[in-house]
């Protein structure tokens, strides 16, 4: 757990997760690597990305995947949460996942990125800034056209 000064501390027995938390970092000698658990919200039968407006949603039935018995978020969800921050690792993740996204996933991702990007730009740079496009959206359009 992280204290108010962002220092990691052991999780006390019986402690409940505080409202508004969105990630838990697990470290243990029994784990080969640290494990980050991202917490998301659902409203009814829809997954909801809770940061920023407008909300981005997806049916819960499409939000999760499973491989070898290990559940994980759909790759388009992970990418939409990374899209506002331009980091090398995020770009690498986008490049690695792009060839595996179906047309519906690419469309949802493009729409989600556009909504988040414009909202973030409007908040940080003022009116008119939201008209710029995220660098990934053109790639999502190009890829969609290639698969037709």
Task: Supply the key terms.
single chain; alpha+beta; three-stranded antiparallel sheet; 5 helices; globular
Describe this protein's structure.
This protein has 148 residues and is of the alpha+beta class. It has one domain (23-146). It is built from 5 helices and 7 strands; from the N terminus they run E-E-E-E-E-H-E-E-H-H-H-H. Helix 2 packs parallel to helix 4 (103-125) and helix 4 runs antiparallel to helix 5. The mean pLDDT is 79.
β-strand percent reads 15-25%
Total domain modules: 1
How many strands?
7
Into which percent range does the helicity of residues fall?
25-40%
Question: Major β-sheet, in short?
Answer: 3 strands, antiparallel
Task: Quickly give the structural class.
Answer: alpha+beta
What can be said about this structure in brief?
With 148 residues, the protein is an alpha+beta fold. It has helices at 60-63, 75-82, 88-97, 103-125, 135-146; strands at residues 23-26, 35-38, 41-43, 46-49, 56-59, 64-67, 70-73. Helices cover 39% and strands 18% of the residues.
What secondary-structure arrangement, pairings included, does this model have?
Blueprint lengths: L22 E4 L8 E4 L2 E3 L2 E4 L6 E4 H4 E4 L2 E4 L1 H8 L5 H10 L5 H23 L9 H12 L2
Antiparallel strand pairs: 1-2, 3-4, 4-5, 6-7
């Amino acid at each position: 757990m992280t204290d108010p000064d962002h220092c990691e501390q052991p999780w006390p027995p019986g402690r409940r997760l505080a409202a508004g938390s969105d990630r838990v970092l697990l470290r243990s000698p029994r784990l080969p690597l640290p494990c980050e658990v991202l917490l998301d919200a659902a409203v009814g039968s829809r997954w909801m990305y809770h940061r920023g407006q407008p909300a981005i949603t997806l049916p819960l039935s499409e939000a999760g995947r499973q491989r070898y018995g290990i559940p994980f978020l759909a790759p388009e969800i992970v990418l939409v949460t990374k899209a506002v921050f331009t980091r090398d690792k995020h770009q690498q993740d986008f490049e690695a996942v792009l060839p595996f996204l179906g047309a519906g996933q690419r469309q949802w991702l493009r729409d989600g990125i556009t909504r988040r990007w414009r909202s973030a730009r409007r908040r940080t740079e003022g009116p008119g800034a939201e008209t710029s496009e995220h660098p990934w959206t053109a790639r999502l359009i190009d890829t969609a056209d290639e698969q037709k």
